[in-house]
Design goal:
Layout lengths: L12 H6 L2 H11 L3 H6 L10 H8 L2 H10 L3 H20 L14 E2 L2 H12 L1 H4 L14 H19 L5 H9 L42 H6 L8 H12 L17 H15 L17 H11 L26 E2 L2 H11 L4 E2 L5 E2 L4
Parallel strand pairs: 1-2
Antiparallel strand pairs: 3-4
């Protein structure tokens, strides 16, 4: 946003605990090298970790323990995020001192309901600020990237299914794809000296099923549950519905007459097909080649919950208050908040919905 950033992050100390001492040292040097030491020794600031830097951490148990903790620390991550921004913009403005006004706030997300609730709030920030009119038009939130992923899935499904696929079948297949993070976790894919990955674009539809653990999806892994599914199409549809509601403290919202993200995605996929001059014979209903609007009309039925297409946004967790409140220390249902209070050894907690939980620990 214009003056702040929202991030929904999952920290994995369990993953960092499994790394070898050498991998911890290499990762720590890779994310934050000692620039002054490198300048004195004529080593470029962006060079891979050197053996001297790695050994300096390996031979000091205290530094090694701190490095392992830092690599799964939310505070350390924010330092890596904020410090380079402050250095750059202070240099541009010719000033010194703090660039960011205050330290970050980090309410804890406790369950699937809270996860979807907070994600929708973040994705709709641009809409509520009045700088975007729709989910696809939210250029500065990951909502637009999620929408581009849906467009890519539609095109990939149409190509993969072949000539006999009906619009209903294509829409049904699209509705089955899982909602996944824009920035996937790459904790297990580190190699010292390897070039950084390309900036995120519309993700490859075939790669969105990647998991740390085969029997868990990404949301389940982040929350510690084994069954925790949210479908991408259903999430985007519910975001559109929530974005149409007036926010009690914001001026912007999605027009009630606006086109939904599902219909817009199908329309964009059809437009791309026509622009590439690809034949429409891959979309058939009765053996003939129907107009492109047939698939678009199926998307409209999905948007309105038609039973012929398997979009079920009603199953998505929906809190009575659909707008997140930024104050508080956590988001979650009553049972989740009670367990979090017990974990912290507290008698009660402020929760993200602005309620006070008087649960005895």
């Amino acid at each position: 946003m214009r003056n702040h950033v929202h991030l929904l992050l999952a920290i994995r100390p369990d993953v960092a605990a499994e790394w070898s001492d050498r991998e911890v040292a290499e990762r720590r040097v890779a994310v934050m090298p000692n620039r002054r030491w490198r300048a004195r020794h004529g080593i470029p600031a962006d060079a891979p970790p050197s053996s001297a830097e790695v050994n300096a951490i390996l031979h000091c148990p205290r530094r090694l323990a701190v490095a392992r903790t830092n690599l799964s620390s939310l505070g350390f991550f924010h330092r890596l995020l904020k410090e380079p921004c402050a250095r750059l913009w202070n240099k541009v403005d010719g000033v010194t001192g703090h660039f960011w006004e205050g330290r970050f706030k980090s309410p804890r997300v406790l369950d699937l309901e809270a996860l979807v609730h907070v994600a929708r709030y973040i994705e709709l920030n641009e809409v509520h600020a009045g700088s975007a009119l729709s989910v696809p038009g939210s250029a500065w939130t990951s909502a637009s990237v999620q929408w581009e992923r849906l467009v890519a899935i539609i095109e990939e499904t149409r190509t993969r299914c072949g000539d006999e696929a009906t619009p209903e079948f294509i829409a049904d297949q699209v509705a089955r794809h899982e909602w996944a993070p824009v920035f996937s976790c790459r904790a297990g894919a580190f190699s010292a000296g390897r070039a950084p990955p390309d900036p995120p674009g519309p993700p490859d539809p075939s790669s969105v099923e990647g998991r740390h653990e085969p029997d868990r999806n990404w949301a389940g892994t982040a929350l510690g549950f084994r069954s925790c599914e949210v479908r991408l199409a259903a999430f985007l549809h519910s975001m559109h519905l929530v974005g149409q509601r007036p926010h009690p403290r914001k001026r912007g919202r999605i027009a009630s007459s606006g086109e939904g993200p599902l219909a817009a995605a199908f329309r964009a996929a059809i437009r791309d097909i026509r622009a590439d001059r690809r034949p429409m014979t891959a979309i058939r209903t009765d053996g003939s080649a129907p107009p492109a609007e047939t698939l678009f009309e199926c998307a409209l039925r999905m948007s309105h919950g038609d039973q012929r297409c398997s979009l079920d946004s009603s199953a998505l967790p929906m809190h009575a208050s659909v707008f997140a409140v930024s104050r508080g220390t956590c988001y979650g249902a009553e049972d989740s908040v009670r367990r979090e209070a017990e974990r912290r050894g507290r008698d009660r907690l402020w929760v993200g919905y602005g309620q006070f939980d008087d649960t005895a620990a």
